[in-house]
Amino acid sequence: MTTETHPQTHPGTDPERLRERAVAALTAARARTAALTDPVSDRDLTAQHSPLMSPLVWDLAHIGNMEELWLLRRVAGRPSMHPEIDPLYDAFEHPRAERPKLPLLGPEAARRYTAEVRGRVFDLLERTPLEGTALLDQGYVFGMIAQHEQQHDETMLITHQLRHGGPVLTAPDPGPAQGPPPEAAEVLVPAGPFTMGTSTEPWALDNERPAHVRDLAAFWIDTAPVTNAAYQAFMADGGYHDPRWWAAEGWEQIRTHGIEAPLFWHREARQWLRRRFGVIEPVPGEESVLHVSWYEADAYARWAGRRLPTEAEWEKAARHDPATGRSRRYPWGDADPTPAHANLGQRHLRPSPAGGYPAGASPLGVRQLIGDVWEWTSSDFLPYPGFRAFPYEEYSQVFFGPEHKVLRGGSFAVDPVACRGTFRNWDLPVRRQIFSGFRTARSL
Questions:
Q1: pLDDT tens profile 7-63
Q2: I need a surface site. Which of 51, 95, 199, 265 has the fewest CB within 10 A?
Q3: How far is it, in rounded angstroms, from Cα 115 to Cα 367?
Q4: Ordered structural domains, the chain, with CATH
């Protein structure tokens, strides 16, 4: 019988180490929020750069409002600091396209509000026992809020990508692929059971739980995500003009909107260019393809005579260690990610060349399962057996169903606190503005 790993790097139940971890996670998230909001003008903060996204200033105040709600009100039992603004920052109350019309806090007021909340939260954290309730156990609710802020930081980075104008964000390029290339283009994942999900990861969110055994047939999976060069071969072969490769809804989508390439690409003469955070540059063939919808990923896989992996296949390839039968936290083991393992945390503003990060490979030799690009799977977003919504239904439960497809692995825009081998992301199959790519698989 396979067993779930018991993480070796989280701080267990030691109160001081738990507090240090929570402070570090919250501090890192706030520093990133500032890095995403400080470089742009108030006009850019309050503008809606796409109807798909909120104004940046909405995300900024929403981060503070969510932190106040869960830490100051639910944990500490304090009254609302500004009850008149609560409905403005309820993500389910107002669609994104309508948020610019709301009487939102301005940039400086939003900054003051989030800073005041954070000061009170740090005072609370110093004296709150991190045990006794499910919310407080091992600092869960503080970890939940740190992950929430980092998820909105990724959302704000998407908004930066959609924003027109000159570049305002900077980061070093990842450089050439680290280490030797993979020995093979695909690896065989053997048949058998493995433990999917987690019951021991202290800050895992509700849809990652509980751990349960899945038994899969053997399958082959790519050792690296699909590259821009490989995707251009699909395009050059008429992939966007051949209905054989497309799901009916995807074919209708690309014909209706005239889609002929990944989002942000355009062709000049004989060269494909892309816009990346305000910079126009040639599409680098060696990078993982980015900004493709589920329909585009699925069409490419069919054209290549392959398919997208299921969510369970992806997780087995990422976590299962055939030698021990254990399911690891990460492909490389239980240790937290380092820059040698994965491209995470907005350290770079682009994916690394595909096939890199040998230190982050799984036991079977699959690389870049964590970081670089979110990877579409073929699976609908559904609950695990024994799922229990916690601490609120609106995080996962309301999204379950065939309308949303699962993405795995995280991207360069994801912070390690919100990325692990069990972490599940989901989105509508038409979404292209997200930092999404894919790898393919095939059955025996």
A1: 445 555 688 999 999 999 999 999 999 999 999 999 999 999 999 999 999 999 999
A2: 95
A3: 39
A4: 3-162 (1.20.120.450), 171-444 (3.90.1580.10)
Tokens of 318: 């990422």
Q: Which pTM was predicted?
A: 0.96
- The size of the chain, in residues, is 444
What's the rounded Cα separation, in Å, for the pair 92 and 73? 19
Summarised one tens digit per residue, pLDDT across range 63-118 is 999 999 999 999 999 999 999 999 999 999 999 999 999 999 999 999 999 999 99
Peptide bond into 391 cis (omega under 30): yes
> What is the chain's percent helix, strand, coil content, to nearest 5?
35, 15, 50
Q: What letter would DSSP give residue 353?
A: B
DSSP string for 266-332: EEETTEEEEEETTEEEEPPTTBBP-S--HHHHHHHHHHTT-BPPPHHHHHHHHHB-TTT-EE-SBTT
